[in-house]
Design a protein that fits this description.
With 300 residues, this protein is of the alpha/beta class. Helix content is 43%, strand content 17%.
C-alpha cells in the first residue's frame, strides 16, 4: 500500500532560526514500507510498461548494498514477477549482507559476477538483454527515461514555493527528474555518496542523453566520507543525533551523507538568508539493519 503524495515536514532548530533558513524534508521514505523513496518513483512507470508489454520477468543490476536491488525484489514479489539481480562482486553470496538476504528472501535470483563483467554489461546492456530476451531490463539504479519521469512527480507534488531542492545522488536518475521538473529560478543540489569527481561527467552525460537542457544545478562531491558505503564516527553521530532530535531515520549510504552535508553547509553559511530549502528523503532504510549487524548496532 502506498502513501501519496508524501508530506513536507518542516524542521525547527535554533540554527535554522539563526541563519534565517526554512528547511523541509520531502518524506518519500513514507511511500511504501519496502519499496520506498526514489526507488518506488523509478519503478512506477517501468512496472506499467512491463505489464503493457506482457513481460512476466525482469532483470536488473546493482552492488552489494544496492537499495535498488532490494526494492526491485520487493516490487517483483508484490507484482508476481520473476526477478534476476546481477550483483557486482563474484566473492559475494546470498548471505553476504542484509540487503542481499532481503532480495533473496523476496524470490530474486541473484547472479554474482566479477567487476569486469558487471562493468561490460552495465555499459553495453544489449549483451545482457540478448542473454535474457524474455526479461524486462532495468539498468543499474533503475535509471532510465521512465524512471526520470517518475521522479519528476516529486516536484509536482510540492504545492508551495521553494528556492533550493537537495537530493542524494547515486546513478543520477532522481537528480535528472528533479531538475527537469523545476523552474529556472529554483536550484537543484545533488550530494554524491561516491568518491571522485567522475559524477560531474556522468550527470552531464545523463542530462544530454535525456535532453534536459538546464543549468540551475550544483553537484557536491566532498561529503562521501571515504566512498560508497564508507562511514566514520562523525557521520554516525550525526545520524543518531538527527533521529533523536527530529524522529527521522537516515541511512548511512545516501540520506545520512546528504543530510549531513546540508546541515554542515547551513552552519558554514553556504546558503543565503531567507531561503526555503527542501531535502529529499530517498528511503533506503532497509540498509540500516545490515549496517548494524556488521558494526554492532551503532545506528539507533
Amino acid at each position: 500500500m502506498t502513501s501519496l503524495p508524501t508530506p513536507l515536514q518542516e524542521i525547527s532548530h535554533p540554527l535554522l532560526e539563526e541563519k534565517k533558513i526554512k528547511l523541509f524534508i520531502k518524506r518519500d521514505d513514507l511511500i511504501h514500507q519496502e519499496i520506498m523513496g526514489n526507488k518506488w518513483r523509478k519503478l512506477k512507470y517501468n512496472l506499467l510498461a512491463l505489464k503493457e508489454k506482457n513481460y512476466t520477468a525482469l532483470i536488473t543490476m546493482g552492488g552489494a548494498y544496492s537499495n535498488h536491488i532490494a526494492a526491485t525484489a520487493a516490487a517483483a514479489k508484490e507484482n508476481n514477477l520473476e526477478a534476476i539481480g546481477i550483483i557486482r562482486g563474484e566473492e559475494l553470496n546470498i548471505s553476504s549482507n542484509h540487503t542481499l538476504q532481503i532480495a533473496h528472501a523476496k524470490g530474486m535470483k541473484l547472479e554474482f559476477v566479477d567487476r569486469s563483467t558487471f562493468r561490460t554489461w552495465r555499459d553495453h546492456p544489449e549483451e545482457l538483454i540478448a542473454k535474457y530476451p524474455h526479461h524486462y531490463f532495468l539498468p543499474e539504479g533503475g535509471t532510465n527515461e521512465l524512471a526520470i519521469r517518475g521522479c519528476e512527480e516529486i516536484i509536482e507534488e510540492i504545492d508551495q514555493e521553494f528556492d533550493v531542492f537537495i537530493t542524494p545522488i547515486g546513478t543520477g536518475g532522481t537528480f535528472a527528474g528533479l531538475l527537469k521538473a523545476t523552474q529556472n529560478h529554483q536550484k537543484i543540489i545533488g550530494i554524491s555518496s561516491l568518491k571522485g569527481e567522475f559524477i560531474h561527467q556522468e550527470v552531464q552525460t545523463l542530462l544530454i542523453k535525456h535532453q534536459i537542457n538546464k543549468t540551475n544545478y550544483q553537484l557536491i562531491d566532498n561529503y562521501h566520507f571515504g566512498g560508497y558505503g564508507k562511514t566514520d564516527t562523525v557521520l554516525i553521530d550525526f545520524i543518531n543525533w538527527f533521529k533523536e532530535k527530529f524522529d527521522v531515520s537516515l541511512d548511512p549510504i545516501y540520506t545520512g551523507k546528504a543530510f549531513f552535508a546540508v546541515w554542515d553547509m547551513i552552519k558554514s553559511n553556504k546558503f543565503e538568508n531567507n531561503l526555503k530549502i527542501v531535502i529529499l528523503h530517498t528511503g533506503g532504510l532497509q540498509g540500516i539493519e545490515g549496517f548494524n549487524r556488521k558494526n554492532e548496532n551503532i545506528i539507533q
